[in-house]
Amino acid sequence: MGDVNIIHTRFYQNLLNFSPKNELKMKKIFFAALSLLLLPTISFSQGSFSNPIYFPIQSQYPLGGTIKSADFNNDGKNDLVYIDGTDSCFRIFLGQGNGQFNLYDSVSVIQNHGMGFSCIFNSLGFVEDFNGDGYKDIVLTVDSFLNYSIRLFLNDGNGKFPTQKIVVDSLNQYNSLIYRIFDITNDGFSDIICYSWPDNYFYSGDGTGNFTNVPTSLSQTNMDSYSIENNFIDINNDGKCDFINCIQGTNNTGWEIYYGTGVNTFQLGKTFFTPYQAWLNICDVNKDSLQDIYVRCLNHFTSYYLINDNQGNFTQTTFLNDSFVFAGLYCVDEDFNEDAKNDIACYYGDSLFVCLGDGFGQINNKVSFKMPIYSGNVGSYLFEDMDNDNKTDLVYVNPNPPKGIYCLLNQIDTTPIAPSINISPISSGSCGYTSITFFGNDIEPKMHLKFTAAFQTDIEVPDSNITYTSTHIFKAHVDFSTATIGKYNIVLTDSNGIVTTITDGFEVQATVPPDLEIKIIGPSQTRIGLPTRYYLKITNPSNCNALAVPIVLFVSGNNKVAFVDSIYDFDGKNRDTMLYAEFDNYFADEGKSKGYMYLINQIYSKDIIYYPIDITALSPHELFTINVSIGTPFLNNDTSYHKKTRQPCCAVPDDVLNCVKAFFDLTVENAKDCATEYAKLIIFNGVPKDIRIQYDLGGSLEETARKCIPFLPTGGKWINRGLKAVGKKLLEDDKIQPSEAEKVMNACKCRINPLCDNDSKVSEGLSAHDPNDKVGIGVGIAHWINGSEILSYGIHFENVDTASASAQVVILRDTLDITKVDIISFKPELITIGNHTIDFSTFKTNQPLLYDMRPAINLIVKMEVSLDSIIGALEVIYTSLDPTTMLLTTDPLLGFLPPNINKPTGEGSFYYSVKLKAGLSNNTIVKNTANIYFDFNPPILTPTWINTIDILPPTSKMNSTISNTNDTTIYLSWKGSDVQSGVQKYDIFYSENGGAFIPYITNFANDSILFYGKAGSGYSFYTIAVDNVGNREIKSIGDVSIRINEEDIQIFPNPSTGEFTVQIKNDVQVSKLALFDMQGHKVPIAYKKNNNTYLVQVPTQQNVGTYVLKIVTADKSFTGKILIQK
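The chain above was modelled as a monomer; its predicted structure follows.
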């Protein structure tokens, strides 16, 4: 069980504490977190960086120098200068234009006092044209036996530096550190800024190589020399140099902006504070010609942009995904893929990461490359184009053996990335409303939507049919009932009138009626007395929304069932729970099961939904079974109906109304019209088009019956007795004639028989069970599957009630067996935290999902999913963020998952799906296990979920008892066998007098039934068995054949209203005629004889039902059944 203690709640803060023992483990953590969220609808740029090109540098010391780049010899190719403080020279490498460099010259530092050894101080140098001749010069600080000077080395245009000038002489080491080169005097010439203590020094250049010391208002500013790149810059576009400085105090950490007010004067403007040490980069991230700020907070694993509005304000973007990597020591902003959008490059340890920007302060994609650093960190680095292909390459110094300069050439694909607008689904039937999700960074609030096609009327989507779930995601409910089949353009118009058109982005297809699928996902074991969460996973693979979907749930055993989501009646009132009936299945078998009937108002096209149900087992070691069935939708998705009738939604199909009428024909004749109209009313009231709700269908059926049959008793007992009675009336022996049974079955089909699509699960209640669990699908204890299903897995985790702190970071690691699953089909679907259920299925970009826990918990949870498609490694990370800073919270007692004292607030889960590979053999075993990490505690290994593939069909055969009979009622029985998942149901087929085989009854769970035939006819029968995973027996010839002999006696009409005729052959003499009920009691009758015809009358007070007529002749007796109806 997950136990979080305060001493172990700082998981990420320990990640950087590498040791030889855990180095490999930590690297795996970083790279798993950096993996892309692999989804088939997302396209990524390809490529990375080349293998390093190596240039050795001989030195007896570790290389601590810096490198700078410029075209020193004016041949149009970038060259390098290497400046090292341990030497008395700097080295010039001339570039060949292909990433190769040759050592060209070593320039010695001249001693200016003639004593001691001169070297380059602090390895710092800058490259700029200081004398206006068009050639790049070099300025650096020289240490001549503790006498410091700033030297200028003038380029002769050929890459040689024969002239040295002393810009400033006789400085001390504290005021000789060259900090930046920038035109702070606004005269067009480069100036030198020296960082010092207690004073800073500024030297103004005149463009000829001469410099003058000038005072500025920044002379006594405590400049941070490392934390900001290019911090002398015009930040407010007023043509004056500004200055941005980092504050790295003990109590106050942040940065301050000094605005330039004139020649070398600055005024403090804005000050920003952050609780963590931050390094800054200045760049124009959104290409609006304003300089923005990229902030990375060291050791706190987050980074973000501050977007400049040119009014002195900066708006913080949401933090960047996988941003803890950007806590690396060095980051730069460059355009690596030539899409005119700033990207981010960062290296940490021995890895280079490049993240491609979307132009709005977020990341579209990521390319990672591992640099070969053999020990220690990278030394100096730069990003420049080294092979003249207009791409930014990387050059860096490796300080330790093999020492030298390394060049990595940019090979990232520069093919423009398509606009980040995604839709799901991309097609629909012409059936009425379809719900379409639009998501991506180019989605903005208040967009207008329409669909267009040549020679077709535009389909305008009302703004009221567009619902935003976040800034970059909206769902549109679109009526395609009048659309012509074909391709349509998607036209989006933003609030500024900018139009984005996705040509042929959507297709209207021929309607495929909803064919819904349902699965149960949950554990095989539960804890006694504690609720265990199960999910009903419902899939609508069709191209139309499914409206008013009926579901029947049976749960056996001694337990409590609670529905987590709100339940409503058809008047819109909230119910505490659902009405249930105590029967085991639709065939009315007596038992302890609870049967629930409910209705889901809408399941979107191509959608997958999860409905949570909590089951609490009350008896230890009792196996209980969950059976669930889903029926055909009660409503047609046909908007033409409500447009004509002004009804609020869609048409009730004729087969639903026929089913209602047929049902009430068997109960109360005069109630059927009332029930039909009331069914229309409750269904119409129950289907809003823009939300998904579940209704208590069983309770509404009872309500319908009580409104239409006033003498029925009130309360839930009616539905219990009524369903049993209906089951018996439809399916029990001797209760109904074939014509009526066939009438109801044909009218209602899957609407009254729940076995059209179904699933089951067997679980056991235990006195102790670890809630950190792995769950999945499958039938029975062995979790049988047929190999064609989409596997669904869930990882459950709990912060136990004895934990001393809330969990701040939870990591789930799972490995998929790539030999058995199609890794590309992986799809995250659902995340839960306590009572919060979060749909992850629409987040198909590589951005993390944010969930606001406020006001219950003052946190925002960041959830990230990554998958390594090479080895099948899946990782899910939950991180608790402070809403103010959007960083990992520093409150040691605050976390997103509290101790599970008030269940289920301390529980969470992650659900995903993946397809199996085709062609797996029978009895193939598929295993799956997960590891759960709570903060920095040791991992918890979940139980292994094991599925076994069953692809073999079951077998069945009719029992052969007789070959001919005089009775028109034939008792049929059969046996079925399946050694794996077991037989679930049968279809019974018959043929009359050699004709084609037709169904007699389908989806039948029993092993016997009565067949009603005709005298003088021959019948053949066979069964088709279907096992619990859907494998179906193949058969086309009869198992048995039976002939019904010609009868000497005929009874008609049958069924009868109480008066019927008995016709007897002329040569048969009747000695006795009597009527009996099914309990054997004799029923008084009256009859009149006319030759060999008897007109029989049954008393009007006699009950409706099936009776047996017995006729005795001189040598034998005959019996026949007759149904008496009112």
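The longest strand covers residues 821-833.
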